[in-house]
Amino acid sequence: MTRSPLIRLLYARICALFCLWLAAGPGAAETQDLAETHEVSRGQMLLAADYAVCLGRLTALLQHSWLIQDPLADALELRRDWVRALYDATRLPLPGETQAGRELNMMLRIRAKRDQLALLETGSFNDDARRARLAETTAMNQLFTCHRMINR
User: Fold this and answer.
1) Whole-angstrom distance, CA of residue 63 vs CA of residue 60
2) What is the average per-residue pLDDT within 112-132?
3) Tens of pLDDT along 133-150?
4) What's the rounded Cα separation, in Å, for the pair 120 and 107?
5) Secondary structure of the chain in HEC code, one letter for each residue
6) How confident is the model at residue 35 (pLDDT cuts 50, 70, 90)?
7) Rounded Cα distance, 35 and 29, in Å
8) 93 Rama sector, left if φ>0, alpha if ψ -120 to 50, beta otherwise
9) CA angle 91-15-13, nearest 5°?
10) Angle made by CA atoms 59, 65, 71, in degrees to the nearest 5
């Protein structure tokens, strides 16, 4: 899966800071501890970003369900609240985390919500049947990706 340019930029900055810290000359044990902390932090940041995207997508699906008066909206709301709890748990402040990381997650969440809502609206209300079918398929594939991540 290809990461967005912002995530790659964030990863590059983290790696650069890590290399600068290593150049400062910590001991071997401290280097290993930092490497383990870096991997955990990086993994948690990427997981938080994935949950942010899924939270945005599920929020869009919930809004769309309310719009079309879907009877499954209550179940979707419970699912969205579950993803919100996972997202909140993974976005706890980490040592060395900056405001930029938190802003990146918020941006990813908003963008995912906007894009998912556009796909759902196109799938439901577009007059072009082919375009509506493609939008609906894409939206469901993206939601299935989130479903797999949550249920792993």
Assistant:
1) 5
2) 94
3) 999 999 999 999 888 888
4) 20
5) CCCCHHHHHHHHHHHHHHHHHHHCCCCHHHHHHHHHHHHHHHHHHHHHHHHHHHHHHHHHHHHHHHHCCCCCHHHHHHHHHHHHHHHHHHCCCCCCCCHHHHHHHHHHHHHHHHHHHHHHHHHHHCCCHHHHHHHHHHHHHHHHHHHHHHCC
6) very low
7) 10
8) beta
9) 70
10) 125
Token code pair at residue 69: 């008066």
Beta carbons of 39 and 95 less than 8 angstroms apart: no
Predicted confidence at residue 22, as pLDDT, reads 39
Identify residue 149 by its one-letter amino acid code. M
